[in-house]
Amino acid sequence: MIVVLKPGATQNTVDDMTRRIEEMGLKAHVIVGTERTVIAAVGEKRNGEQETLAACDAVDKVVPILAPYKIASCEIKSEPTVVRALDLVIGGGNVGVIAGPCSVESEEQMMLSAAQVKESGAKGLRGGAFKPRTSPYSFQGLKEEGLKLLAAARDLTGLAIVTEVMTPEHVEMVASYADVLQIGARNMQNYHLLQAVGEVDKPVLLKRGPSATMDEFLLAAEYVLDQGNSQVVLCERGIRTFESHTRFTLPLATVPYLRERTHLPIVVDPSHGTGVASLVAPMSVASVAAGADGLLLEMHPNPSEALSDGAQSLTPEQLADTMTRCQVVADALEMSFG
Amino acid sequence: MIVVLKPGATQNTVDDMTRRIEEMGLKAHVIVGTERTVIAAVGEKRNGEQETLAACDAVDKVVPILAPYKIASCEIKSEPTVVRALDLVIGGGNVGVIAGPCSVESEEQMMLSAAQVKESGAKGLRGGAFKPRTSPYSFQGLKEEGLKLLAAARDLTGLAIVTEVMTPEHVEMVASYADVLQIGARNMQNYHLLQAVGEVDKPVLLKRGPSATMDEFLLAAEYVLDQGNSQVVLCERGIRTFESHTRFTLPLATVPYLRERTHLPIVVDPSHGTGVASLVAPMSVASVAAGADGLLLEMHPNPSEALSDGAQSLTPEQLADTMTRCQVVADALEMSFG
Amino acid sequence: MIVVLKPGATQNTVDDMTRRIEEMGLKAHVIVGTERTVIAAVGEKRNGEQETLAACDAVDKVVPILAPYKIASCEIKSEPTVVRALDLVIGGGNVGVIAGPCSVESEEQMMLSAAQVKESGAKGLRGGAFKPRTSPYSFQGLKEEGLKLLAAARDLTGLAIVTEVMTPEHVEMVASYADVLQIGARNMQNYHLLQAVGEVDKPVLLKRGPSATMDEFLLAAEYVLDQGNSQVVLCERGIRTFESHTRFTLPLATVPYLRERTHLPIVVDPSHGTGVASLVAPMSVASVAAGADGLLLEMHPNPSEALSDGAQSLTPEQLADTMTRCQVVADALEMSFG
Amino acid sequence: MIVVLKPGATQNTVDDMTRRIEEMGLKAHVIVGTERTVIAAVGEKRNGEQETLAACDAVDKVVPILAPYKIASCEIKSEPTVVRALDLVIGGGNVGVIAGPCSVESEEQMMLSAAQVKESGAKGLRGGAFKPRTSPYSFQGLKEEGLKLLAAARDLTGLAIVTEVMTPEHVEMVASYADVLQIGARNMQNYHLLQAVGEVDKPVLLKRGPSATMDEFLLAAEYVLDQGNSQVVLCERGIRTFESHTRFTLPLATVPYLRERTHLPIVVDPSHGTGVASLVAPMSVASVAAGADGLLLEMHPNPSEALSDGAQSLTPEQLADTMTRCQVVADALEMSFG
Fold this sequence. Notes:
4 copies of one chain form a homotetramer.
Chain A: E1 2-5, H1 11-23, E2 27-32, E3 37-42, H2 49-54, E4 59-63, E5 83-85, E6 88-90, E7 94-100, H3 107-120, E8 124-126, H4 144-157, E9 160-164, H5 171-177, E10 180-183, H6 191-198, E11 204-207, H7 214-225, E12 232-236, H8 254-261, E13 266-268, H9 270-274, H10 277-290, E14 294-298, H11 316-332, E15 336-337
Parallel strand pairs in A: 7-8, 7-14, 7-15, 8-9, 9-10, 10-11, 11-12, 12-13, 13-14
Antiparallel strand pairs in A: 1-3, 1-4, 2-3, 5-6
């Protein structure tokens, strides 16, 4: 890391900082500039040295050189991680699609949804049984009953089940029904939950928090990886910005940016990313074109009857159309899709 | 709520929407404008009708009229809620101050900190025993051992202990040591945790998430209030914006804005809100001037030795100076301070 | 528009507001809800009535129903506007590509760039002669000398010249050399400049300001259109958000969102939108897939010698590769490209 | 500056980069870390070297050490700049207040406003004659007629006139009537305009753009200073963030942050910063407490009749009350106010 001293640092200050850096087991190189003195500290181990030095009175700022994540990094493992659950394949040239309703609402709704998703060509089925809702007065999900309906839908169709787990004590139960555990955006930094899913032998789909930086996102993945679970899928679902014409702002550059830094697969959720059904198809096609390893799409047999997120849900016909358009682009770019 | 139809809605569409609104038990008023037709739906109960209507094909957008929160609202309870813990009084003309280190690090550090905080005139002592850290490789706190040191510091000084709880299963344990339970910004929408602290008979200090809107913030409080715990303190600690010269952007207008809408007290955390020690004193004084009911301040006996957040920690001398400057303004504005 | 009154409005207040609305020549419909009274005002003419009503003491907020722009709207003109300049065609199923260096630096650099752009298949040549630079100490462009080099490059290659004009008094001069006048993001709300280019008979490429909303963007276009110039191209070039791993955040949903509202063509600038050369190719392909009518790409014969924006400039080889990948997707989606 | 090379840089690459840095007249210090090699380049002159190096293929990023502004910096001039216009004094312990309507609307409105502002104790009078409006269909100001009314109001009251200039060709005219030239937020990076006001012998009040960083803000001031006009006042008026409950987000930490870096005075505009009249008084008091050198306040004799910005305008009574509360805090902090 680079330690930039405040203007007018005396030789005593420089010596003192050098000593502190060396006491951390690092090697210090002092560079005296025309207006500022900086010290390069070599041998950083990511153990908080940066914070400690930044707190020193004589220090203006500390500039890290290394990325703070390790296991998620391309520098540790260069071949792409491919995540599989039943017929769903995410990564390594395969664009896996997970579709389905926001919430599990009833047996009829779920079986119908599953059949429609299957028909569309997608290989994963989403549906929330435990629903994190902004208001305590909104529908909170069918809970374990919902998980049973999801499992029944898998039995019917062979689709892999992707569903959210909200709190550590539910991890075991949710994992007993689901094929992929989803961590929602609100819980991206719920570290006890991340550690709990890190101990399970099921893939984890980790959604980016709406104000998370790339480093924070990868470090959240690192919490899961660090517990021994290497099957992590990163999901871009939009960030909060000043834009209010869409529900969130969907920054697709996340896909190629992460591709250069991590071996983990990256999927996109254009349903939450836009919040508007008519924008989902073009943003799905764009996601495939940007190199995404998968899509997470909300579809409801009848969006205007949905108990949650109807405004952003595709109809079955819109899902089929979206899949067709994506397939065309995936074919053109020689990627496997579905 | 106001349901705005898309351009060119036919009479059939208007009739259909009117019927749907009335099936929800609401009264529909159709207003035919020069370019658009809108339907006012009267009798809203905050049960998700807005989402359902927004998902209808014929609907352009739905504009809510009512605030989505109830118990937190001034319209339900107009006198200000005053939260007390030992000698700490927050709200109702009292500006309560909570100060202390980011993390509990050792007995020596904690006893020294407590004495310095006491000396400064603050009535609450902060310190993290369970630390949510962005990186799994950073110091994660002393856990229950840290809670014991906090309790010992209270025994020594009489200061009220404010400390964070990170996961539902720890609530009982943390509540057995602490006087005020803090919910961190990363957990503002961890609903199981909010419900768990809602069931405890201890005040809750709820930090605003860095990308939370005012409605989301008040609805998070509503999760706690809805479980029966009425002792909730709202804490503004900065939001994530494009500004990078400070750690977060501290929007003090939150204080008077919330004052007009909720009876709950509002405190400000200028330490996280700026991330820079030299900015904490002026922003503390400004918070008092803006009408805040309290301050949450990081202080460390020796910031450059701190295991976390040293860059934003005041020294004991800086804390004393900050308290003096705030006292002067509180006196001028005839508020009780400390 | 919908005028929402504050809680507890008396009949007198309602009568008073009704009178004021009717004095504006609007028709008022009063709707008494369970907690609030709202007044729908029909006949809005976009003449500032909304602001005036919002300022009344009794009013909580005013919700507009109509979009504030007119000439740019799909509701006025439904067929897409196609903008042409020499062989460059933007809109109506044609994806027009404009490429070239950030700044015109020398005759040699410009002639070489033009030949490389021509070779790549693009039909427009970009290059800044007047450069808005954040620092007064950075290279400010070759000014009229640069315009002459651009015109010479057009003579050599037949490419249409796209270049920025920064201030009203330069409009005539720049228009005498250029085929398309570019308004930079910093000047999106420089209204005297917008009016000045609105009086010229050359197409205008209008870049979105980094914090402009969609309505502000379309109203800026409206300033140009209102002067009689109907040849306006909208350009999404990224917005300022908390993300710092890219220079700006590039929200591609702008493309389909605007498509639903305006007949004007929409191009994307992934060079400024990401600020990182390696992200430009994937985001270009994604832009085409999202339905963009054109691309604006920075290319430099030797980026590491560029006087500005080198980090985001493609090499000639990277430009050729980007064009090939975009062509594949445009073909698959049956759009004309180049 | 610090040049961070990409992982795996060879000795050849390091040698090549070293040579390039030295060709720029800088001294290169190579530091070989455990995972990365960095080169410290000493002797930076702020002439674009940073951009050029960042564009090199072998370079991951370049970290500047020096601030990019010079004349505005505390390191060049440590005593605070005090700006005076008639009885208005801004800076050096004086909190100068400028109040008045958003727009000059009529002689009656302006004379009444001026008398009320005078009565409140403020020493500056604001009012827009040239109005930058988001929509071409909104009131655009009375233009030169408005300037004449402002001059007449000065004759009546002795208040210093602060008014906006929007385009270079108006600078001379506006300067012939006004005492302080205001550059609006939309024009913060209108460099021709900045240079034009830099050549005039009148103080300039420069508003921060809603998405401008601190460096961009100070560099905009630098454009004015660099032309020889040293009388520049910086004005924080709110930034664009995801918050929509206020018109903008008002980050008061700007005040102490800039204080540490520049000798220029810093005023706050809580009217635009919040957009809500009831929030203006508490944020004004908070601004004084944060150390602001002045306030810019919107007041209208009758806000609900205002032609622009009525929702954020104080009534004359609210202005008087705001002044009283600010005076109390200014007295307590021993600053001169008014």
